[in-house]
Design brief:
This protein has two helices and no strands. With 67 residues, the chain is mainly α.
Protein backbone atom coordinates (compact mmCIF):
# COMPACT_ATOMS: atom_id res chain seq x y z
CA UNK A 1 0.00 0.00 0.00
CA UNK A 2 1.30 3.42 -0.83
CA UNK A 3 1.05 6.34 1.57
CA UNK A 4 -1.37 9.12 0.62
CA UNK A 5 0.17 12.38 -0.47
CA UNK A 6 -0.76 15.39 1.60
CA UNK A 7 -0.37 19.05 0.83
CA UNK A 8 -0.93 22.20 2.77
CA UNK A 9 -4.02 24.28 2.15
CA UNK A 10 -3.44 27.66 0.50
CA UNK A 11 -2.95 30.64 2.84
CA UNK A 12 -5.94 32.47 4.26
CA UNK A 13 -6.20 36.18 3.47
CA UNK A 14 -8.33 38.15 5.88
CA UNK A 15 -9.99 41.18 4.37
CA UNK A 16 -12.23 42.42 7.18
CA UNK A 17 -10.96 45.35 9.20
CA UNK A 18 -10.63 44.78 12.95
CA UNK A 19 -13.27 46.53 15.03
CA UNK A 20 -12.43 50.06 16.05
CA UNK A 21 -11.38 50.71 19.62
CA UNK A 22 -14.21 51.86 21.89
CA UNK A 23 -14.03 55.46 23.00
CA UNK A 24 -14.23 56.06 26.75
CA UNK A 25 -16.64 58.61 28.26
CA UNK A 26 -14.84 61.80 29.17
CA UNK A 27 -16.44 62.16 32.61
CA UNK A 28 -15.58 58.72 34.03
CA UNK A 29 -12.36 58.19 35.99
CA UNK A 30 -12.38 54.44 35.28
CA UNK A 31 -12.59 55.08 31.54
CA UNK A 32 -9.74 57.55 31.80
CA UNK A 33 -7.52 55.08 33.65
CA UNK A 34 -8.30 52.33 31.13
CA UNK A 35 -7.59 54.65 28.20
CA UNK A 36 -4.19 55.59 29.68
CA UNK A 37 -3.36 51.93 30.31
CA UNK A 38 -4.37 51.09 26.73
CA UNK A 39 -2.10 53.84 25.39
CA UNK A 40 0.85 52.53 27.42
CA UNK A 41 0.22 48.96 26.26
CA UNK A 42 0.05 50.06 22.62
CA UNK A 43 3.27 52.03 23.08
CA UNK A 44 5.19 48.88 24.03
CA UNK A 45 3.43 46.70 21.46
CA UNK A 46 1.40 44.63 23.93
CA UNK A 47 -1.54 44.15 21.57
CA UNK A 48 -3.06 41.38 23.67
CA UNK A 49 -3.40 43.80 26.58
CA UNK A 50 -4.80 46.48 24.25
CA UNK A 51 -7.49 44.04 23.11
CA UNK A 52 -8.28 43.07 26.72
CA UNK A 53 -8.64 46.72 27.72
CA UNK A 54 -10.87 47.39 24.71
CA UNK A 55 -13.19 44.63 25.92
CA UNK A 56 -13.15 46.06 29.44
CA UNK A 57 -13.97 49.57 28.17
CA UNK A 58 -16.78 48.15 26.04
CA UNK A 59 -18.28 46.34 29.03
CA UNK A 60 -17.89 49.16 31.55
CA UNK A 61 -20.68 51.55 32.30
CA UNK A 62 -19.99 54.77 34.16
CA UNK A 63 -23.08 54.27 36.36
CA UNK A 64 -21.43 51.20 37.92
CA UNK A 65 -23.71 48.57 36.34
CA UNK A 66 -22.54 45.92 33.92
CA UNK A 67 -24.16 45.49 30.53
Amino acid sequence: MSEPRTTMAPPVHLTAEPPSAPEPDAGCDVYGALARERTRAAGIGDWSKVADINVEIGRHRSDGRRR
